[in-house]
Design brief:
- The protein has about 220 residues and is of the alpha/beta class.
- The protein has 2 domains: about 140 residues, Rossmann fold (3-Layer(aba) Sandwich), CATH 3.40.50; about 70 residues.
- About 45% of the residues lie in helices and about 10% in strands.
- The chain has 10 helices and 6 strands.
- A 6-stranded parallel beta sheet has the order 3-2-1-4-5-6, with helices on both faces.
- Helix 1 packs across helix 4, helix 3 crosses helix 4 and helix 4 runs parallel beside helix 6.
Amino acid sequence: MTRPLGVIFDMDGVLIDSYMPHYESWKLSAERRGLEMTEAMFASTFGQTNRAAIPFLYGDKFSLAEIDAWGDEKEELYRELIAEDVHAMDGVSELLDSLAAAGFALAIGSSGPRPNIQVVVDKLPGAHHFSAAITGSDITHSKPDPEIFLKAAEKLGLSPGDCLVVEDSIPGLLAAKNAGMKAIAITGTAGVDQLTVNSARVVESLREITPELVATLISA
């Protein structure tokens, strides 16, 4: 590697399979308020912070204080579920080890609150390679705004053009594009056509990502 490069990972659907814990915690917290949370509604909020997702789904029904209280409750439920068993995505440990060995700086850029990320980092194989983590607690603007990835690059001491993002959501891929970063999209939460349009490469597994591929995409 001729110059320092970085890789910024989204967490949910990229580092861990947290689909069901997130859905169940949203569904239960919505039911407590007499509201419906269908799977389609849940999927439409991928990549958004709670402050963005709740008004997006339910309009102006709730004050900011009520939104924050709901979000806190939902995240507490989520942490209770995820702490029982962190489902690492296949190939996570090997990919993080290989990128770190090749000299890449690694960061997490996730819209989830910091306590959620900490629960995962404490249990995720290879998480010790991350030197920075920007979370929903650290940003003002939700994806597709580039703030989260720009802050992650800054934490790594790198320019945006020297970083690549690994994402699974369309808002996340758009955030990477808006940050001036190349992105690798992982299938699972969005259609392949949408992923292809908004990324430099689409993969079905982390095992398809190599240090050589990342370096090539950043330099392209």
